[in-house]
Hints:
single chain; 0% strand; 2 domains; Hypothetical Protein Yqey, Chain: A, domain1
Amino acid sequence: MTLREQINNDIKTAMKEKNNAVRDALRLLSSAMKQIEVDERKELSDDDVIKIIQKQVKQRNDAMSQYRDAGREDLYEQEASEAAIFEAYLPQQLSDDELESALRTIIAEIGATSMKEIGKVMGAASKSLGAQADGKRINECAKKILS
């Protein structure tokens, strides 16, 4: 079963259980996937779906910080619950130690020795670790190792 099919099945399950929060969040996710399919005229792979989910989680996290700054706890909670629902479909994220170890391996393979080569490291790390860690965490850890 593809990730897309799993999400559609979970929408149906949420509808049967009358779980409106999960249903609505997954419908937003499904809508984002359909939009990409229509715009780019292609069938989405699981990797494409994961990228879409990551983008949606990032949007929710950005909105959460803005709502918290504005004192809108009600909207903050809604965004937080949607982000948590979306994150359930992402692969297990690497711990900080695992990420650092993987980055050290990638840096050794590339032969990077200074911050000038951060672009090469980021490119290789994003390809190999893309679904297991977000770009911000990869960047911060790579900078720490290279400096």
